[in-house]
Amino acid sequence: MSEQTKNPLRDAISEAIQENRVILFMKGTPEMPACGFSARTVAAIQATGAPFAAVDILPDPRIRQELSALSNWPTIPQLFVDGELIGGADIVTEMYESGELHEALGVAAPTTGGPASPATGGAPAAVETPAGADPAPRPMGIENRLG
Amino acid sequence: MPSPDEIKQRIEAAIPDARAEVEDWTGGGDHFRATVVSSAFAGLSRIQQHRLVMDVFEGEIGGPIHALSVKTQTP
After folding, report:
1. Fold observed for domain A8-145
2. What is the count of structural domains for chain B?
C-alpha cells in the first residue's frame, strides 16, 4: 500500500480499513443493497452475527476508484478484515458455506457463542473528521453495524 | 463483447495447467461465471487464486465484462 498523502479520499478509505476490523465496501446499504453481489455478501456476513462496518460506494464514484486502486481488486463488494482484503461476493459466499467466514470474522460457528453483544448505540456513525482536517465534506459515510 | 469461449481460452492460455469452464450467467453477454482448475492455485489463498484469474482481464472487469464470478480449485 503506497503511503502518499496527496489524496485525502484514499487516505480516508485506508484509515477506515485500518480502524474497522471488519469493513465491507458495497453498493447500497446493508438494509438496501443496490446490487445482487452486495446483497449476497452482506447476507453472509450478517448470518455470522459478526459486527461489521459498511461503506456505500455509490454516492461518489471516486470512492470506488480509490478503493480499487488501493486494493487492486476490480469489483464491488470488497470485504476487509484486519486491514486485509478477504474477497468479494464469490469468496465471501464460499467461505460462509465452508464455515471459514465465522473464523475469519472472529465469531464462533453457529452452535456456540452467546448472542452478539449489542455494542455502542446503533446509530450509524459518520467517519470522524480529525480536528484540523480539510473542511471539504467527506463523501464517504461509514455505518457501524455492531451486533 | 467477449464470448464465454473467448474468456475460457484466455484463462487457459494465461494460467499454467488451467482448465476453465465459463458460462454466460445472465444471458446478457456481460456477466460471466468461471470455474477454473489449475495446479497453479496450490498453496495460494483464495484471494490470490482469484487474483490470478482476475489479472487475465485487467481493466476489462467493470467495463466490457461487467462481472466475472470465479470459483477456483486445485486438481
Report:
1. Glutaredoxin (3.40.30)
2. 1
Does B67 contact A87 at a Cβ distance shorter than 8 Å? no
DSSP type of residue A31: S
Which chain A residues touch B51 with a CB distance below 8 Å? Answer: 72-73
ipTM of the assembly?
0.85
Domain of residue B22, CATH code: 3.30.300.90
Give Rg (Cα) of chain B: 11
Dist CA A39 CA A2 (whole Å): 31
pLDDT digits (tens, 9 = 90+) for A39-96: 999 999 999 999 999 999 999 999 999 999 999 998 999 999 999 999 999 999 999 9
Task: Quote helix, strand, coil % in chain A, to nearest 5.
Answer: 35, 15, 50
Cell of A86: 478477504
- What is the predicted pLDDT for the residue at A3? 55
Whole-angstrom distance between the N-terminal and C-terminal Cα of chain A? Answer: 30
